[in-house]
Write a structure and sequence with these properties.
The protein is α+β, with helices and mostly antiparallel strands. The chain contains 3 helices and 7 strands; from the N terminus they run E-E-E-E-H-E-E-H-H-E. Strand 3 and strand 4 form a beta hairpin. The protein starts with 12 loop residues before the first strand and ends in a 6-residue tail after the last strand.
């Protein structure tokens, strides 16, 4: 995942206990599904509708607990980030990350890689 983003968006990178890296924005979690595909878990229906109208998502489904999951191409990463990237890193002990941990079902740890 860190190969896809520039150093400008380094503050969006997080990892879990299995050392999988992903991005957290205000409205979604973005992870690498394959070489050409990104997987997203969105918790905002308005953001989902906006992305659906742009026609960049496919394989869309909803979960019973209010999450929306879909796939998109790697080229659309900038569009996903523009839909709600915070200007600085989310506080690691704050309410936002704790609520996302409960909703997504995994631990969220800040990740600070060296990006050229």
């Amino acid at each position: 995942m860190r190969k896809l983003i520039s150093s400008e968006y380094k503050h969006l990178l997080y990892r879990d206990k299995c050392r999988d890296t992903f991005l957290i924005t205000k409205f979604m979690e973005i992870y690498r599904k394959s070489k050409t595909t990104l997987g997203c878990t969105c918790w905002s229906y308005k953001t989902l509708v906006k992305l659906r109208s742009k026609g960049i998502i496919f394989n869309e489904w909803a979960t019973a607990d209010g999450l929306y999951q879909f796939d998109t191409r790697n080229e659309n990463l900038d569009v996903l980030i523009q839909c709600g990237a915070p200007k600085r890193r989310i506080h690691k002990k704050g309410k936002f990350l704790k609520s996302r941990e409960r909703k997504l079902g995994h631990l969220i740890i800040p990740f600070k890689p060296i990006i050229n």
